[in-house]
Write a structure and sequence with these properties.
340 residues; Rossmann fold; 7-stranded mixed beta sheet; 4-stranded parallel beta sheet; 11 helices; elongated; binds 6-O-phosphono-beta-D-fructofuranose; diphosphate-fructose-6-phosphate 1-phosphotransferase activity; metal-binding; Phosphofructokinase_dom; magnesium; metal ion binding
Length: 340
Amino acid sequence: MRIGILTGGGDCPGLNAVIRAVVRKATAAGDEVVGFRDGWRGLLDDDSVVLDVAAVRGLLPRGGTVLGTSRTNPYAVEDGPGRMLATLERHRIDALVPVGGEDTLGVAAKLAAEGLRVVGVPKTIDNDLDGTDYTFGFDTAVGVAMEAIDRLHTTGDSHHRTLVVEVMGRHAGWIALHAGMAGGANVILIPENPFDVDGVVAHCLHRFESGFSPIVVVSEGARPADGGLVTSTGQTDAFGHVRLGGIGAALAAVLEARTGRESRAVVLGHVQRGGTPSPFDRVLATRFGLAAVDAVDAGLSGVMVALRGTDVVPVPIAEATAQLKLVPRERYAEAEVFFG
Ligand code: F6P
């Protein structure tokens, strides 16, 4: 059996742990693994590397992906599917393991529907992929954001100023919710719940009254209910996603004007995606890689390995990519108890 593997979309800590686990498990079973570089681009351009056990030594703790990644959409490229199938035939690939989020696995679902043998591995720091309780990368990102919030509390209190922390999360506020709860934020703003600026101002003033300074955690995709403060660069990627950025600075300016207290914005950005994975993410990524090879060897296709409770199980990719997993209202209500 020859297995192809690629990593697509935004990188995240744990991708290398998946690659290592796939290679180790496949090699032990007598299978061979070929890596394609930079996501779907590697299949379009036939840019590949043979992955044996020696090639994956030392990968477990390394952030990023040794295969490289891109947001290439092969369905937006002329004869994209045909070019990819030709590459797979040339390398005599029996099954493909794409590791990615909604976009990468959306392409995987289409290829599976066209008859290709595909077993997906879910990845995104945003944790917004449906069908799995958690994706690897999320725990690491939350840890980075929480550490930042812990540090910002002490400097904010010393200067009696509001600190607005902008975290990643385009459509879903999981990082803001978890990092904000873990870090004791005074307000958490997420894309799922358009916020009321008056309410945020009131929470900040209340926090100042207690003798401490407010920390406001805001997802990059969060918006006020009145539609103001919309911030994006206007640029889009190959899957049509707008590049976000700027809500933290815009909100800090409004809070400074409305509270009469100095406000500063901190954008955590790609720091959340870089560096070594947490223990949880190393184990989850490793288990996903092992389960992907099990699924391939069992002859499954059109599935994605997923965490359900403490078990890793195959679920239909098409179901997992049909909609995003957003923060439910009741989870946000838990965090609201601590606002102000
Ligand atoms: O999809 C994961 C993610 O980290 C989002 O939270 C964020 O909006 C996006 O990637 C940023 O992508 P890029 O690095 O391509 O700007």
